[in-house]
Each structure stands twice: as structure tokens, then as C-alpha cells.
Amino acid sequence: MFERVLIANRGEIAVRIGRTCRELGIATHAVYSDADQTALHVRLADGATRIGPPPVAESYLNISAILDAAVANHCDAIHPGYGLLSENPEFARACGERGITFIGPSAEHIDLMGHKNQARAEMIKLDFPVIPGTSGDLDDERLDAHAAEVGYPLLVKASRGGGGIGMAIVEDPEKLARAVKRARSTARRSFGSDELYLEKQIRSAHHVEVQVFGLPDGTVRHLGERECSVQRRHQKVIEEAPAPVATPELRMELSQRAVESMQRLGYRNAGTVECLLGDDGQYYFIEMNTRLQVEHPVTEMVTGLDLVELQLRIAAGENLDLPTDAHKPTGHAIEARIYAEDSETLMPAPGTITLFAVPSGDGIRIDTGVESGDEISPFYDPLIAKLIVWADDRAAAVQKLADALDTLELRGIRSNVDFLRRIVAAPEFRDGLYDTDFIDQFMH
Questions:
Q1: Is residue 125 situated within a structural domain?
Q2: What is the 3-state composition of the chain as percent helix, strand, coil, each rounded to the nearest 5?
Q3: Which position among 160, 232, 257, 291 bears the catalytic label?
Q4: pLDDT of residue 138
Q5: What global pTM score does this model have?
Q6: Cα(292)–Cα(4) distance, rounded to whole angstroms?
Q7: At 162, which helix (H) or strand (E)?
Q8: Has residue 78 been placed in a domain?
Q9: Do 302 and 317 belong together in one domain?
Q10: Number of folded domains in the chain?
Q11: In terms of domains, do 232 and 155 share one?
């Protein structure tokens, strides 16, 4: 096992990774920007290094500064968390070149799945259903022909994108050229590539994803599925496991299909095969995330497994005895993301937290990177915490989440807590009948 791990991230995920490292007796080293000098993830680490000013390009995306910090502090591995450099193949390669273990899949798999067009083509080869769409970069001279082939309504998506950034819904041909131009600009600015593709929009869909782990012996295991259909601006807000929409037959087929595909690819470490389920019961691959997901705690709650520990042990080359029935969920878990944002507009609202009092009790977990008195910076994602609950069944879990949200106190800043309370009280959510259009309909 590793002796010292550098955590190349910030906020709640850096704190969460550090917790598992401490439990395993692994020393941790944090990195921070000037804005995060006194942040919780820095305070809890065994050591910390400043890597630059607040803009992520000059600090948390500064590969050379992070690697220099790892070498100088004798770190033998780096955990990238999620976001930032977690799906950057150049970073994974650079770690290897410096003799440092990258805790994640190979650079080749990150590169393959990070390029959405290539990932779609690969999954087609592996006989996994994909949403109808274009292949290769869009030819702006043939936009109308591309769109006619896909059919309206459609989505314009960035090939190197993620998190809904650069994505646009196009309902009719008159809006296509403008949407493509805007998406290219956003993609170029956000991902360094303006390559786009078109994809058929699946209406009233469910976002269902399968957690997989590629083990050192070449086998792949799945840990069940999650549903992430409560989204705003194509970003997840509430996730749960198991998926309310999944029948036993769908659960088995989707999970096995994901395992078979990843095993044929030779995939290693954690990954998530993300799919859309249409109202006709057909599922389609949309993308694969080659990293730990924000919503991984719900899988941990229903399996009893520590997914960060699995990542560390796989990266260290340990032969894990992960049984094939490890995916069988016990009970039901739901996660609600708490953001510093206006409950009405859902726009970021940075500021200083004067009081953060979290609920506690059996089946309640809080993953956070802040405490009372900490500042939510305008430079970074405004995620404050993740509130996760577990109960014997979904109805009990929904009620536990509602009670926990009611007792949570967050003062000094605006947050989406009231918005989350309204969602959890909605009959559609209580009955598990929501889909990806739920929040748009809910807000209107």
C-alpha cells in the first residue's frame, strides 16, 4: 500500500479521500490555491503545498506545480478526486513519467472515454446501444443534413465536454446554426477543443448509471446502479441507489452489459457507465466517467463498501476478493447536493458561512469541505456538502431525507436547501415517478 498520497483536489472530495487514507494509515498531502489557504481539506491533511493563485488554470489545473509538490513531499501516489484533472490523460501520463502512481484508470482509457465521439464509436463496436447521433466533428457546411439525419429535438454536445457545459437543446432548424456557434465557443473556452456532435434528445428519460470496477486480475465487477434524473442545467442534484425506475430484468441486463463492455476494453479501477432510459424501456449509452463520481456515497451506503479504498487497493495492485454478489443492495440510499446558490434562480451565491449545523443519527451522512466560519469562494464550484441518507426501503429513505433537510441549519449565505425541501415533498419524487424533465416542470 502507499505511504503518502497527494490529493489533487479541493473541497468535500479532498476531505473525503483524506478520511479513507487516514483509516488505512496512509499519510496525505494537500494542495491549495491562495483562496484555499485555510480550507478544511488543508487543515486536515498531514502536509500542504501552495500551487498558485485562485484561477484553476493557475493552480488546480497546474500539472507541473502539482507534480513538483508530490515529488518534493515524497508522495508515491496521487488521487485526483473528481473534476479538475481527474479525467486528464496528460496528467495521468505525467504521473507515471515522474514515478508516481495515478489512482485511476490508464491514460489510454481516460483519453478514449473522455472523447465522447470516440467513446460512442467504441461502445457501438462493443454492441452497447447508443443514442442516435453524428460521428466525427460536425461539418458546419452540412449542419442541416446532419440534423435531419438525427431528427429534432436534438442536443448539441461538446466531444470533450462534461457536466452539461456547452450543451444546447435545439427544437427546430432555425435555431441550429446559432446553437452550434455558441456551443463551439463555450467548448473551446472550457475544454480547449471546439469539436461537437449532435445527439437525439430522449424526452421524459431517466438517467441511470452503473458503477463498475476493473480489478488487477483483469475481471470487472459492478456495484449496481444509481438514478440521477433530478437535474438542473444538465447537472445532477439528487441521486439514489438502487434506481426506482429499474426493474429486476433491466437491472441485470444493464449491469451485465456494462461489465462485459468494460472487460473487453481491459478497463481498470473505478468507472461509471452512464445511460438514458427512454419511456419505451430502451436504454442508451451516453458517456463513461473514468473517475470517482460525486454521487458515489449512495453506492457505498447500500453495499457497505468504501469506493475510495477500492480505488487505492486496485491502484496498489492488490488482488481484491470482490465477490460477484457485492452489488446486491441492502436498503435504499439518497444523496442531495447542497449548493451555495439562490433557491429561486439556482445561480451561485458565494459568501461566508456563519453557521453550519448538520443533522446526525443512524443512516445519515454528511460529506463536506466546510465548517462554520468558512468562505464559499466565487472562484470554484459552489458545492457546500452532500447529505446522504440510508433506510430499509425507499419510502423510509425519502422521509429521512426530508427530516434531515428540515433540521439542517445553514446561515450567512443563500443556499438551495429550501429548493431541495420542495423537491423531496413533491408527489412525483415521493412516488419515484420523476424523470430528467422533472425540475424544469417543477419550477414552472
A1: no
A2: 35, 25, 40
A3: 291
A4: 78
A5: 0.93
A6: 20
A7: none
A8: yes
A9: yes
A10: 3
A11: no
Could you please report the per-residue DSSP string of 181-247? HHHHHHHHHHHS---EEEEE--TT-EEEEEEEEE-TTS-EEEEEEEEEEEEETTEEEEEEES-TT--
pLDDT tens-place string over residues 287-322: 999 999 999 999 999 999 999 999 999 999 998 888
Domain-located, residue 23:
yes
Set of cell numbers at residue 158: 461538446
Q: How does 198-207 read in b/e, with b if 16+ C-beta sit within 10 Å?
A: bbbbbeebbb
Residue 18 lies inside a defined structural domain of this protein: yes
444, pLDDT greater than 70 = no
What lies within 8 Å, CB to CB, of 327 at 6+ separation is 221, 222, 223, 224, 255, 303
> Do 71 and 17 belong to one domain?
yes
**What whole-number percentage of the chain has pLDDT above 70?**
99
Evaluate the CA torsion angle 233, 188, 107, 120 in order and state its sign: positive
Amino acid identity, position 404: A
Q: What is the mean pLDDT of residues 194-217?
A: 91
User: Do 226 and 194 sit in the same domain of this protein?
Assistant: no
Mean pLDDT over residues 261-288, rounded? 94
Rounded average pLDDT over 398-422: 96
Same domain membership, residue 233 and residue 169: no
CATH (domain of 246): 3.30.470.20
User: Has residue 234 got a pLDDT over 80?
Assistant: no
CA distances from 95 to 88, 91, 138, 220 (A): 11, 6, 33, 24
Whether 291 sits among the annotated catalytic residues: the reply is yes
- Provide the domain limits for residue 269: 206-443
On whether both 193 and 223 belong to a single domain, the answer is: no
Q: What is the CA radius of gyration of the chain?
A: 21
Sorting pLDDT into bands at 50, 70 and 90, what band is 194? confident
Do residues 59 and 25 make contact, with C-beta atoms less than 8 angstroms apart? no
Q: CA-based angle 333:334:335, to the nearest 5?
A: 130
Q: Residue 206 — φ and ψ, nearest 5°? A: -115, 135
DSSP letters of 346-405?
Answer: --B--EE-SEEE---STTEEEEES--TT-EE-TTS--EEEEEEEEESSHHHHHHHHHHHH
Q: Considering 145, 165, 200, which residue would you say is the last residue of a domain?
A: 200
